[in-house]
Specification:
The protein is mostly helical. The chain is built from ten helices and no strands.
């Protein structure tokens, strides 16, 4: 329009061109009004639809933005929860370990009392297991516990001296317990012979049926696996029965003593002690046997002299 008006030569041409343009504009406006009147319903529907679509798109954008924000916040919360759960899990493991240590400390505090009871009842294998495990715990996981230093020293001292008690018990069963059974058997035979007034000489000591460790080794060495007796099995297992007398079977008891010494790692000291005391103990056996034979002979002579009395 500006180019058309600027190329005109005079004012009349401009006015003419302006009037023509205004007329064309008015005609276009009238045509537009007619079209609007004709298509008012469709136009209104289209405008409303477009407005609705625009609102829905805007709402969807807002919702998507909100969802993204919620997802980011959930992600942060999940990270926090994961760290918190990991922290709680680690704390649970620590507390469980602490409780186990406290239970172990409580059990170890009762070891001296239980040890005295086992030693008094001669349950040496249980006492050795208890003492060795307690010392290992005190010198291992509980090494940093300062409150157990006195108990650690006490149990360590008991462990150092435990093998001496076991060696003494082993010697007692090797040399004294076995010969006492022979002496008691001889005395019983002597009493029976005196009751029946048997004037025959005192019978020799029967030592063929004694259950010595050497005989046990010989029988177990040459026997078949299926012919093992209950005594051999019990010795090999070396388990203590809390209801029976531990010294009832000397062979089993000595096997338990050897197993306890092995747990204490004192087998070399045991062998050396047995070798050092062998001659002395054998002399004591000869001395005791001589005394028993002399006492039995004296008693038998007294009985014979009393039987020859007139009264």
């Amino acid at each position: 329009v500006l180019r058309t008006l600027s190329t005109s030569d005079d004012v009349e041409d401009r006015e003419t061109e302006k009037g023509r343009l205004e007329e064309a504009y008015e005609k276009c406006d009238r045509d537009l009004d007619e079209l609007i009147v004709q298509h008012y319903t469709e136009l209104t529907t289209a405008i409303r639809t477009y407005q609705s679509i625009t609102e829905r798109i805007t709402n969807s954008r807002n919702k998507i933005k909100q969802v993204k924000e919620n997802l980011l916040s959930c992600k942060m919360l999940l990270h926090c929860k994961r760290d918190e759960l990991r922290k709680l899990w680690i704390e649970g493991i620590e507390h469980k370990h602490v409780l186990n240590l406290l239970d172990e400390i409580e059990n170890i505090k009762q070891v001296p009392q239980k040890l005295e009871q086992c030693m008094a009842s001669k349950r040496y294998l249980n006492a050795t297991d208890m003492l060795v495990s307690a010392v290992d715990s005190l010198e291992g996981p509980l090494l940093q516990v300062e409150g157990l230093s006195d108990l650690r020293l006490e149990l360590h001292s008991k462990k150092m001296n435990m093998h001496l008690v076991l060696i003494d018990e082993l010697h007692r069963h090797l040399y004294i317990k076995s010969t006492n059974r022979v002496g008691q058997r001889t005395k019983e035979k002597g009493r029976i012979s005196s009751l029946v007034k048997d004037a025959s000489p005192v019978p020799l000591m029967d030592v063929t049926n004694l259950s010595t460790p050497r005989k046990f080794l010989e029988t177990s060495q040459f026997s078949t696996p299926g012919s093992s007796s209950m005594r051999e099995t019990s010795l090999l297992e070396s388990k203590e029965d809390t209801e029976l007398d531990p010294e009832e079977n000397s062979t089993v008891f000595m096997g338990i003593l050897i197993k306890g010494l092995a747990k204490l790692k004192k087998i070399p000291e045991t062998v050396k002690a047995i070798q050092d005391r062998l001659e002395q103990e054998l002399k004591q056996i000869v001395k005791r046997s001589t005394t028993q034979v002399a006492d039995n002979g004296y008693q038998r002579g007294e009985n014979l002299s009393q039987e020859n009395q007139p009264r």
